């Protein structure tokens, strides 16, 4: 709250806080319940592959802080701009829902979303997500359902904007094609996307440089060449005309004709194309096609 006070004193402050930040937005004050257990712990993550039973994941302190900020006389609106660790809000993943998780999400949705909420599922492939120390994409579906329900209940229309990465170690072109098909199926047209950038101290970076998983020493595929990277990245933009042929060729090469239909052959578009083809053929045969508009 001291920081909020300071921000509100700034000469150009107009009443809006663009990002009520925090560790991953919603991990404020999370720590081990019994410190002695943490002191002996060697686990590389407290929330992957499962949420540690010793971790206090209550979202109450965060919700209370948001409410205090809302009640500040100088603040008109405060938004959450940092990525929310959405998996902690899904009951199937974080089994310690004491009510504070739902209360937090309701607070975010009703008071702190600036039109759209950014979240980072990062990939849909379990193998790639494991490398990132992130849970299965099925939990993103569960989160979206919860998020959409709260919006609907409150008469709000605030789309989720998911963020994804291509060419992450363990991600293949086929998995990118699956990512494109699954997110298309969910109604997304992706815009928050990025190519993998190695960052220090991560399993993925070690795999990127050595080609091996540092824990198992098994080989890990990584797209490295500009061509491989481009082939992964283009799947985000299946809807762009310039990617149509390349995606079609790549999927044919992978033997994934099923995805050609899913990604590229929208029934409506296909019907339109067939109609145009029919007209062109009719004209060539000298039959009257549809008259040109003048
Ligand atoms: S994994 Fe559990 S025991 Fe280990 S540091 Fe995290 S909270 Fe503590």
Q: What this model shows, in words?
A:
The chain is mainly alpha-helical and 294 residues long. The chain has 2 domains: 80 residues, no CATH class; 170 residues, Transcription Regulator spoIIAA. 43% of the residues lie in helices and 7% in strands. The chain is built from 12 helices and 5 strands. The protein has a 3-stranded parallel sheet. It has a two-stranded parallel ribbon with strand order 1-2. Strand 4, helix 7 and strand 5 form a beta-alpha-beta unit.
* Helical/strand content category: mainly alpha
Q: Give me the side-by-side strand order of the main sheet.
A: 3-4-5
What is the overall number of helices? Answer: 12
- Strand fraction equals 5-15%
Q: Enter the CATH topology name of the largest domain.
A: Transcription Regulator spoIIAA
Helical percentage: 40-55%
Low-confidence stretches are: none
- CATH C-level class of the largest domain is Alpha Beta
CATH-level-2 architecture of the largest domain:
2-Layer Sandwich
Give the cofactors and ligands: iron/sulfur cluster
Biggest β-sheet: count, sense, barrel? 3 strands, parallel
The structural domain count equals: 2
Overall geometry = globular
Distance between the termini: 66 Å
- Indicate the radius of gyration in whole angstroms: 24 Å
Number of strands: 5
- What is the succession of H and E elements? HEHHEHEHHEHEHHHHH
Mean pLDDT equals: 91
């Amino acid at each position: 709250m001291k920081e909020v006070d300071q921000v509100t004193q700034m000469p150009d402050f107009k009443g809006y806080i663009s990002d009520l930040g925090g560790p991953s937005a919603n991990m404020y004050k999370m720590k081990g319940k019994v410190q002695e257990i943490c002191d002996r712990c060697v686990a590389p993550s407290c929330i992957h592959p499962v949420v540690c039973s010793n971790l206090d994941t209550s979202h109450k302190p965060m919700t209370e802080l948001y409410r205090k900020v809302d009640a500040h006389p100088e603040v008109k609106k405060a938004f959450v701009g940092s990525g929310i660790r959405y998996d902690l809000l899904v009951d199937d993943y974080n089994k310690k829902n004491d009510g504070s998780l739902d209360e937090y999400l309701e607070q975010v949705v009703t008071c702190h979303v600036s039109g759209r909420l950014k979240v980072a599922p990062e990939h849909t492939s379990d193998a790639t997500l494991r490398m990132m120390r992130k849970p299965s994409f099925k939990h993103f579906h569960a989160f979206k359902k919860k998020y959409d329900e709260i919006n609907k209940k409150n008469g709000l229309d605030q789309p989720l904007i998911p963020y994804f990465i291509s060419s992450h170690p363990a991600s293949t072109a086929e998995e990118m094609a699956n990512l494109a098909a699954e997110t298309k199926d969910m109604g997304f047209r992706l815009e928050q996307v990025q190519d993998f950038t190695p960052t220090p101290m991560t399993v993925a970076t070690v795999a990127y440089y050595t080609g091996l998983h540092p824990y198992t020493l098994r080989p890990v595929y990584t797209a490295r060449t500009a061509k491989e990277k481009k082939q992964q990245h283009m799947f985000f933009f299946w809807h762009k005309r310039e990617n149509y042929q390349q995606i079609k060729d790549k999927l044919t090469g992978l033997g994934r004709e099923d995805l050609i239909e899913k990604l590229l052959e929208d029934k409506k578009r296909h019907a339109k194309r067939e109609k145009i083809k029919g007209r062109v053929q009719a004209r060539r045969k000298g039959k009257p096609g549809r008259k040109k508009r003048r």
